[in-house]
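Technical annex, item 7. During the second reporting period the consortium partners agreed on a shared format for inverse folding records so that results from different sites could be compared directly. Each record opens with the tokenized structure and is followed by the designed sequence. A conforming record, contributed by the partner at site C, is shown below for reference.
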């Protein structure tokens, strides 16, 4: 990020709570790059000449007033009344008052969205025990394809500048990150004899002759394994490897964990090779989501292979249960997680394209874990949204332009097998390449 002159902002509030520090900190420090000062003294607030906001129930006739919603003063998790208010042709929530500088409370809304408050309360989950994307409040409001939290931050900045013209913010720049999940390093190669035999018998039983032919030419060395797309990925990002991040699944084989054994020499060499040129993180197995000891075992395996600490993760199947998944990640030494995104849609699950600290509602405190939200996943686009590569690219480009408007970070999620450019994934390499081409243009624009 480019640093420019920025200014302090004074916030009056009757009580400085962990939630207030978190929500205001994300808006002002993380997004706008301003120095934040809190005061609980109304006289000091009124006398100050700094740009200032009164976040309380009562207007002090000084600075900008916003009638505060109760959620940032609470300490527990409870059902929140979601009352809708329209602003800037958007359906937003947590209305304020006629004398407030905005008709809704952007700080309360920000907290509700990035803390994933609604996910603590929902008992309606899908077949993988995940929060249903359809239950997301932004999906209900038709806002899930806009980084509404980042937009709210800039609306706040505009309102402050109208009353305090000297107020400035830090200039952000658009950033691109491409992530690759390695659920299954090879389609046919390096599997155990038992696994390979079982797969061949299943192909015979179901009459999948094309698969049997593919296996034969791969085993004869006449063609690369279809999931072996690593050279293509590295060549596509040649000179730009700082934009790419791999997550390896190295859990034991199970119903939802089909990767090659972590003991396999070729697999270990692949991981080591990737780690020598790119950032590498752990893709914790499906079962490890409920078992911290399994998470730690798999992380230790990866550290043993790459010979350095593993601090980045993304949950397999995007299994994210609040607050347990993130609590376990923190206990296991993870500092950055990339699970935050839709499993069946594209857009902004937490309403933002800016990395944020996980706020643990069960303990009512901010943690050190950084959550990196992603906006588009190959499997969601093709298998859930049933988009063609062309339609998928149109949607991705729209999302990238939304991120550019607020100069946030666009993160996409891919799998090595989706880049094989054949069968059901024919044409998707072009989408992968278009993201990079567009991203570089937006970074330099």
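Designed sequence (site C submission):
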């Amino acid at each position: 990020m480019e640093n420019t002159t920025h200014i302090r902002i004074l916030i009056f509030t009757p009580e400085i709570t962990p939630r207030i520090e978190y929500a205001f900190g994300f808006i002002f420090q993380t997004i706008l790059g301003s120095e934040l000062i809190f005061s609980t003294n109304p006289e000091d607030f009124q006398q100050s000449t700094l740009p200032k906001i009164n976040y309380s129930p009562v207007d002090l006739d000084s600075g900008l007033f916003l009638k505060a919603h109760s959620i940032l003063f609470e300490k527990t998790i409870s059902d929140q009344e979601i009352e809708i208010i329209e602003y800037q042709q958007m359906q937003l929530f947590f209305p304020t008052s006629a004398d407030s500088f905005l008709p809704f409370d952007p700080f309360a809304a920000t907290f509700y969205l990035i803390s994933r408050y609604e996910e603590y309360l929902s008992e309606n989950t899908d077949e993988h025990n995940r929060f249903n994307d359809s239950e997301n409040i932004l999906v209900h409001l038709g806002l899930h394809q806009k980084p509404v939290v980042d937009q709210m931050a800039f609306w706040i900045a505009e309102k402050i500048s109208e009353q305090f013209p000297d107020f400035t913010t830090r200039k952000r720049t658009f950033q691109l990150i491409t992530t690759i999940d390695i659920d299954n390093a090879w389609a046919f190669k390096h599997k155990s004899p038992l696994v390979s035999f079982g797969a061949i018998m299943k192909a015979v039983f179901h009459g999948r002759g094309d698969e049997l032919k593919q296996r034969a030419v791969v085993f004869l060395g006449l063609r690369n394994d279809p999931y072996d797309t690593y050279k293509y990925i590295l060549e596509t990002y040649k000179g730009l490897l700082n934009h790419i991040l791999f997550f390896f699944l190295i859990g034991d084989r199970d119903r939802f964990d089909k990767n090659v054994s972590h003991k396999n020499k070729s697999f270990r060499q692949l991981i080591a090779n990737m780690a020598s040129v790119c950032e590498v993180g752990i893709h914790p197995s499906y079962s490890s989501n409920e078992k911290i000891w399994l998470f730690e075992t798999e992380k230790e395996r990866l550290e043993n292979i790459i010979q350095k600490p593993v601090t980045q993760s993304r949950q397999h199947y995007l299994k994210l249960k609040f607050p347990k998944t993130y609590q376990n990640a923190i206990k296991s030494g993870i500092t950055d997680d990339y699970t935050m995104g839709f499993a069946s849609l594209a857009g902004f699950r937490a309403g933002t394209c800016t990395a944020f600290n996980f706020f643990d509602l069960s303990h009512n405190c901010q943690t050190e874990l950084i959550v990196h939200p992603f906006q588009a996943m190959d499997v969601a686009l093709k298998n859930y949204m049933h988009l063609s590569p062309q339609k998928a690219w149109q949607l991705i480009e729209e999302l990238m332009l939304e991120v550019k408007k607020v100069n946030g970070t666009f993160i996409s999620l891919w799998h090595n097998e989706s880049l094989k450019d054949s069968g059901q994934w024919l044409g998707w390499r072009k989408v992968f390449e278009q993201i990079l081409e567009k991203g570089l243009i937006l970074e330099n624009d």
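Residues 1-5 have pLDDT under 50 and may be disordered. The first strand starts at residue 8 and ends at 12. All partners now use this format for quarterly exchanges.
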